[in-house]
């Protein structure tokens, strides 16, 4: 356990670090964040004893570090500094073996089995065993970094201080190294304090973060308490956007560039949609921000091409996503830049309409097949079949994240209302259907022009979506029924 | 057989050969048989044991001392160009030695050891002055800064020596011969004078081997590894200065041995001080014995000061290391 109380100190007369207090328990990892010159490295030097502090305490398990001798302290605390060039070269093994220095005593101090084990284990953990006899000055920066981390691990100290441990490493080795340190922290109950440049890595691996600015703590706590847009933007003086990690409950940030996106102004208009017997396609000159439940590229993203492809009603494929991607490629589009949907209805029966409001306009495109109509409220077991209502809403405007979700809800409600109006029945339950088994919805926006923060039913955007989706769906169902009769 | 065992065997064989050549080759050629059978040729045995052997042993001790001190200074300062000569420590020791010799100083209890002790004191003082000044100039103690400081001190101390010599008015040739470094005509008393200090100094430095290894990564890193940097730095500087002082007291200033030997040793056997120090000791001894042999045979019957030979080899090596280091940085 490491405890820091009201620590102040720096070079010369100036206090670079002022009144910093925190504690880190065994098995915990604390990440120190802060812009260049915020005092991160100075704080680290004060903690490690490389720089004497002016006031405060640094205690390891309750004992002030000033009461430790050099070797005693090294047994308790291992430090990984930033990499420096050196005049003479050691081999990897010699370098890692130096980590055992504090454990050796006496004039002739023999190399014990314990020393040998610690060194071999540290090299194995850092994946450098095969470099054992290589001279470190012949290695790349990333490899050297791993050698020095191994040296610190060989020291076998319960407290580990790391100054940007992922410096010079590629993403694979960044992950490997932090995984290892994280695992060591848990398995051996190490107390780890590490400086990070990369806010996302720090958020992912640390239990707690400390945001430092001008030598004082701006914020400290769990990652979600520290990685907040306001604080990070204030301290780093950089615009960022905060979003969740896809797998972990840890916030991540994305930089927002100072240079604005330069694209030609454009509008999505019905006349730019191409309808063939194979598909309905809209190919935009600039990428649109999109949220969808499509087959290919579902979820959120930026895409140029939007395809609603007709497939046979008996279409079956083990890997329909790959098949669809191949199809997109065959047609001369890029699968990475295309949102792809499937429908069993005739694509010529698509309804595409434009709705104009004060802000600008939006275009709704609907294909409807109601053969598999479902009343979702009855929740019966059924087989999934093709035959679906695909709804596209393309907005000429700049939508917030909320607006995207509200647009989806509004569109779904309008679709259900259309089914109700047309008295589309669920054949299994014999009640009015709410949709089909495989409906898809897509909301795309140019992200140009007016900023539209909301798309609920009382906003202008929401009203247009509601009426638009309702009208188009009713008409599309009409087309479908006509086609069935014929 | 490990690489290190090979290193020691090869080095010891070279030293043995150097000693053998050193005692047998010369204006009078002596059969090696005399070594173990002095009765076979008593004149030769006399030359061998009273003239050649002390000379060879002294050359060996001086070479070993300078090489070991050089290896330690280089490791401590992380500076491949550091050696007793380039750091100006040899000049400091010379001032002490010249003072003792030409003012006839004798400290009561020390007797014979007055000369080396005063030499060492001056070496230590110079060492701290050079390091202190270099640190004032440039806190990071860049390679060039330290060497330049060494040269400044060398020049200054050299002029002090010249002044002392001018004032004493002694015969110049002998003094200059001494200044350029020589191990000739010294005899067993000089061996006795240098031996204890060379052994103690080298042994203490060998005890610092692991600390030196750690300090190669910088003082801060060494501290984090648990090295009491202040203490060990002091011990290393004192021991290195003791070795230098002892060597200079008996042989004058012999340059570049402490530069060439550790460099070659590292190049061949690696930078680990556990081996660099003892191997430099052995190889330094061998090198100076060979250099001394060359110096007294190359333009026989005239003798060259051995310092001329070492400078002849050492200066180009210095230039080579400097070139390599600068290229490495660029």
From TrEMBL, chain A:
Gene3D superfamilies in UniProt: P-loop containing nucleotide triphosphate hydrolases
Name of the protein in its database record: ATP-binding cassette domain-containing protein
Domain of life according to the entry: Bacteria
CDD domains: ABC_Iron-Siderophores_B12_Hemin
Keyword line: ATP-binding, Nucleotide-binding, Translocase, Transport
SMART domains documented for this protein: AAA
An example molecular function term from Gene Ontology annotations: ATP binding
The ABC transporter domain, residue ranges: 2-239
From TrEMBL, chain B:
Cell location: Cell membrane
Endpoints of the signal sequence: none
Top-level taxon: Bacteria
UniProt keyword Transport present: yes
CDD domains found in the cross-reference section: TM_ABC_iron-siderophores_like (cd06550)
Alphabetical list of SUPFAM superfamilies matching this protein: ABC transporter involved in vitamin B12 uptake, BtuC
Pfam families given in the database record: FecCD (PF01032)
GO CC terms, sorted: plasma membrane
Membrane-spanning parts: 12-36, 56-73, 85-107, 113-134, 146-167, 187-208, 234-256, 276-294, 306-323
Membrane topology, as annotated: Multi-pass membrane protein
Chief localization: membrane
Keywords: Cell membrane, Membrane, Transmembrane, Transmembrane helix, Transport
Record-level GO BP terms: siderophore-iron import into cell
GO MF, one example: transmembrane transporter activity
Assigned protein family: Belongs to the binding-protein-dependent transport system permease family. FecCD subfamily.
Annotated protein name in UniProt: Iron ABC transporter permease
Organism, as annotated: Planococcus salinus
Taxonomic classification: Bacteria, Bacillati, Bacillota, Bacilli, Bacillales
